[in-house]
């Protein structure tokens, strides 16, 4: 009898957990749709901005613009903008991000083995801040508790901080590592160099454009236009990656909560089966005892 009470208590607990995870799944699904729409809506603008810069890159000298110049002999650190979530309950999203971060650092050391690399982090999200502090690495700045629907103004301080660090020589290069949204069931960790802007890739983009380039006139000139666009381009890149990371977080949380709800349902089903078996066995034993007692009395 005691065992049956324990099983009933476990079934009740599993049902309560299922109710909680189901509610969280529905909330995450609603947030996921909004985050996906926001990320997908801004992609065309970000892509078009890159196309414009790629066209300008063929008309200017990169050494005239500080954000296009690399400083390989600089003693500055390598800055990394690491974008994670503020909260957990999103499956292996953050774990995969930090694992990829370690692999990225090893690859960077291998690529620049002739240089002494030191890393300083701009952590976006509590999980990335905790990762940096727990691993004993240098934390340059942290940005936590971003809104669930971040605006351009909410993210631009991150980009401005990276630009100021690069222009002042604090960073000789800045990379950004984040989780890119692919589909609801698939998120991939991505990374690229934010500063200095890779003019080679911009020119490659220009060469691979489907439409032939037209002969545009720039006022006052291409260099001035490029100088005005570069900070906005950096801010837009950071904003787009933040939206991608947010969409990935909500997608991963919805999938994790759905998996938890499904697991809870399986546990309830298994426990109910065990409960019914034990209850039937208990009833059979009681009937057997009654029959035995009646026979004993009648004898």
TrEMBL record:
Key words of the record: ATP synthesis, Cell membrane, CF(1), Hydrogen ion transport, Ion transport, Membrane, Transport
Compartments in which it is found: Cell membrane; Membrane
Membrane topology: Peripheral membrane protein
Domain of life: Bacteria
Single GO cellular component term: plasma membrane
GO BP annotation list: proton motive force-driven plasma membrane ATP synthesis
Gene Ontology molecular function: any one: proton-transporting ATP synthase activity, rotational mechanism
InterPro entries, per database record: ATP_synth_F1_ATPase_gsu (IPR035968), ATP_synth_F1_gsu (IPR000131)
Record function comment: Produces ATP from ADP in the presence of a proton gradient across the membrane. The gamma chain is believed to be important in regulating ATPase activity and the flow of protons through the CF(0) complex.
Cited NCBIfam families: ATPsyn_F1gamma
Annotated family: Belongs to the ATPase gamma chain family.
HAMAP family, per database record: ATP_synth_gamma_bact
Subunit structure: F-type ATPases have 2 components, CF(1) - the catalytic core - and CF(0) - the membrane proton channel. CF(1) has five subunits: alpha(3), beta(3), gamma(1), delta(1), epsilon(1). CF(0) has three main subunits: a, b and c.
Name of this protein: ATP synthase gamma chain
Organism whose genome encodes this protein: Candidatus Chisholmbacteria bacterium RIFCSPHIGHO2_01_FULL_52_32
């Amino acid at each position: 009898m005691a065992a049956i009470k324990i099983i009933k208590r476990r079934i009740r607990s599993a049902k309560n957990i299922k109710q909680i995870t189901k509610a969280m799944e529905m909330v995450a699904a609603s947030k996921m749709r909004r985050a996906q729409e926001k990320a997908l809506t801004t992609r065309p603008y970000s892509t078009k901005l890159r196309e414009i810069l790629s066209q300008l890159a063929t008309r200017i000298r990169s050494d005239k613009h500080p954000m296009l110049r690399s400083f390989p002999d600089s003693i500055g650190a390598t800055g990394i903008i690491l974008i994670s979530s503020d909260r957990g309950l999103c499956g292996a999203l953050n774990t995969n991000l930090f694992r990829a971060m370690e692999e990225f650092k090893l690859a960077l050391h291998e690529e620049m083995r002739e240089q002494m690399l030191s890393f300083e982090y701009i952590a976006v999200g509590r999980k990335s801040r905790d990762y940096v502090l727990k691993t004993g690495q240098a934390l340059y700045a942290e940005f936590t508790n971003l809104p669930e629907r971040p605006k351009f103004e909410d993210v631009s301080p991150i980009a401005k901080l990276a630009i100021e660090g690069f222009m002042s020589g604090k960073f000789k290069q800045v990379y950004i590592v984040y989780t890119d949204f692919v589909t609801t069931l698939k998120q991939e960790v991505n990374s690229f160099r934010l500063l200095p802007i890779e003019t080679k890739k911009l020119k490659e983009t220009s060469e691979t454009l489907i439409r032939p380039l037209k002969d545009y006139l720039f006022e006052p000139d291409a260099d001035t236009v490029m100088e005005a666009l570069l900070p906005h381009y950096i801010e837009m890149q950071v904003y787009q990656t933040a939206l991608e990371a947010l969409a990935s977080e909500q997608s991963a949380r919805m999938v994790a909560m759905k998996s938890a709800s499904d697991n809870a349902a399986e546990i309830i089903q298994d426990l109910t089966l065990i409960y019914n078996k034990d209850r039937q066995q208990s009833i059979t034993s009681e009937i057997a005892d009654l029959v035995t007692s009646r026979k004993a009395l009648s004898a």
